[in-house]
Amino acid sequence: MALTIKRISREYAPELMADWFIEKAKDSIAYQNKFTIAVSGGSTPLAFFKALSKRVNQLSFDQWNQVHFLWVDERWEPVSSNENNYGMAWREGLQSLPAHFHPFNTQLSHPLFACQAYESNFHQWVNQSIDWTILGAGTDGHTASIFKENWLEASLPVVAFETKHPQTGQVRVSLTISTILNSKEITVLLIGIEKQPILLRLKNLSLLEFPIQKVVSLAKNVVVVTDL
């Protein structure tokens, strides 16, 4: 496993990520006529979406038509809710991008059905693997909706699984560990002083206490973007 840490100011981090997106999209589309990116929820990716919306003219319409956004995980809330990752992303800038969007369908009657639908369509959206996955990490060390308490569920040989937040009981759906690890590139965003303990644990993987540590330790290459 190769871990690269990129330190940058909090203000410039979204701009850097947006620049990387344009570069990676152009390269991937030139090589395989498609670019797939899986994005996480939370406040930090929202700033990335805003920065990306300012770069809409840096890809042609035909190039944008080859871009596919997937979601790492989703809270089982309606799109209109501020708890819904896709809904928030859409309102914060994604609506200006002429790309393809593939959120988990939280309008279905059960989260299991949303996971099954994601799996049935996944390989229409993705060639062999997701080109770029952007992960966050909670202060408790979870990533996506993979917690200490559901590691075995997250290890199932499927594309996505249903779960619950271990403290709040909020229902969620998430990509599995194997789906995430199969990504060509993984970037972890750690922005804010509260993420300092997580960064320290990622720099020392001798004791794998948290899910984000385990995922990083199993990945081939990970870039951590941080302001710490």
Walk me through this protein's architecture:
The protein is α/β, with parallel strands linked by helices and 228 residues long. It has nine helices and ten strands. It has a seven-stranded parallel sheet. Strands 4-8-7 form a three-stranded antiparallel sheet. Helix 1 crosses helix 2. The chain is globular. The mean pLDDT is 96.
The share of residues in extended strands comes to 15-25%
Number of domains: 1
Shape: globular
Major sheet summary line: 7 strands, parallel
Mean pLDDT: 96
Distance between the termini: 22 Å
Short summary:
The protein has helices spanning 13-32, 43-53, 61-64, 85-91, 111-125, 151-154, 177-181, 196-203, 211-218, and strands at residues 2-7, 35-39, 67-71, 73-75, 100-102, 132-135, 160-164, 171-175, 185-190, 221-226. It has 228 residues and is α/β, with parallel strands linked by helices. The chain has a single domain (2-193, 219-226), classed as Rossmann fold, CATH 3.40.50.1360.
